[in-house]
Design brief:
1 helix, globular, OB fold (Dihydrolipoamide Acetyltransferase, E2P), single chain
Length: 110
């Protein structure tokens, strides 16, 4: 069995991407992406649940994010789910999930 770690999301950007230079020739962009799920509650009223995702894009994808992605923009991303484990200021071990993008597609026109 050939298992793959692959995730695809379509959502709206929550804020301007944060782009940082890494070394002399590479960049990384961190993008906050919101996805929505609509459903009806027990009384039949339409509800929307929003999930927030952290997306990390490297190299040419970071440059694309820096130049073309604005707050509110609808984008599609493909990549893999990764985890970062760290120790907080109180010595508690924490794990944060993020998506490492391998592709980004701009949607929704201008």
């Amino acid at each position: 069995m050939n298992l793959k770690n692959n995730i695809q999301l379509i959502g709206n950007v929550g804020e301007l991407p944060t782009v940082t230079s890494v070394g002399e020739s590479s960049k990384v962009a961190r993008i906050s992406l919101a996805t929505n799920r609509s459903y009806k509650d027990a009384e039949g009223n339409k509800q929307t649940a929003t999930q927030w995702h952290t997306v990390e894009a490297w190299g040419h994808l970071a440059e694309l994010a820096e130049n073309y992605i604005d707050k509110g923009k609808e984008i599609a991303i493909g990549g893999e789910l990764q985890y970062n484990t760290y120790e907080d200021s109180e010595g508690v071990k924490r794990t944060k999930a993020f998506i490492r993008a391998s592709e980004i597609q701009l949607l929704g026109g201008k």
